[in-house]
Amino acid sequence: MTADFSQDEVFRYARHLILPEVGFAGQRKLKQASVLLVGTGGLGSPIALYLAAAGVGRIGLVDFDRVDTSNLQRQVIHTTPRLGTAKVDSARRQMLELNPLIQVDTYDVVLSSHNAEMIASQYDMLVDGTDNFPTRYLLNDLAVLSGKPFIYGSIFRFEGQVSVFDARRGPCYRCLFPAPPPPGSVPSCTVAGVMGVLPGTIGTLQAGEVIKLIIGIGEPLIGRLLLYDALDTTFQTIRLRKNPTCKVCSPNPEITHLIDYDQFCGAPASPTEPGDFDPTLEIEPSELASQLKRGIALQLLDVREPNELAVSVLSGAVNIPLGQLAQSLARLNPARPVVAFCRKGIRSLQAVQILQAAGFTASRSLRGGINAWATEIDASMLKY
Known about the structure:
The protein is of the alpha/beta class. It has helices at 7-12, 14-17, 23-32, 44-54, 87-98, 116-120, 133-146, 173-176, 189-192, 198-215, 261-265, 285-293, 322-325, 347-357, 369-376, and strands at residues 34-38, 58-62, 103-107, 125-128, 150-156, 159-165, 224-229, 234-239, 282-283, 299-302, 318-319, 338-341, 363-366. The protein has two domains: 33-265, 3-Layer(aba) Sandwich (Rossmann fold); 279-376, Oxidized Rhodanese, domain 1, CATH 3.40.250. The chain has an eight-stranded mixed β-sheet with strand order 3-2-1-4-5-6-7-8, with helices on both faces. Strands 9-13-12-10-11 form a five-stranded parallel β-sheet.
């Protein structure tokens, strides 16, 4: 029966309808499906656009961030005129301009163990468009506990990963990664950089997995991890096995409800949110400039990666990347105050936590990082 399809829909989805594997039955499944996409950045952009174009009937978007100029190199769902707007609103607008026949829900919040079950209860499957470990473990556990598939994607510089974790039919994310890496050991795209087209490749693959799962065609990446290297344009597939002692999906799980994932991973999912750090750990650019002018004996610690120094430097600072700080504390004098800084003040707050735990009690982070210094103190300095 085709009575539930308008002429507009038939024209719009014609290339699907003539595929024997899809047809009206498959397109109807897409129309009736609901998908929750967490993250509307690099990965989320192609996922959201292709799911909208495919006619997925209801799509939920979760993201707390705002559109920034630095996003536009890869987050193609957003545009220059929408700088400063909520990413979920920007994404929703673009999706409905592409396909006004679908429903797009927005959640301008940080997904947490407090709100995840309520939000996800309205959707059939969960899609990972995130860039942090706390949210990824949260999504996995939520998927296992609610019996839903979790379409995973991850990117780093020139490499990406895709898989489908469905504990009912295969392993979950914790089977592959039982514990998160140490805080700061895996830099984000903000720190390490990312090839602009890479999230397009990985996100499109994720969207393809979602569509296959909804329609019930092909072989989804359940029990398989797809690895992509953009530098040599190669794909590899690794077989995954279910961990019989997995803490969440084994017959006798330790985790039977959502936990505190920031605590579990040792880092917050949204370190830019107010209240994540003690404000007394920060120093204002104006205060630092005043102390330097008065000749106070400070140690300036630049925790950025060496390649970032080509953009901007603070004279007299010692450069120890955040990932090497714990092993390089001997380069600093614990008797002298330390002011750590990075690009925007996020890594340096993590550095201060490391320093204070090691006895550098007089250590603070430059609020807003070297970009804030360039804005408020030295206008000749480049920002990035």
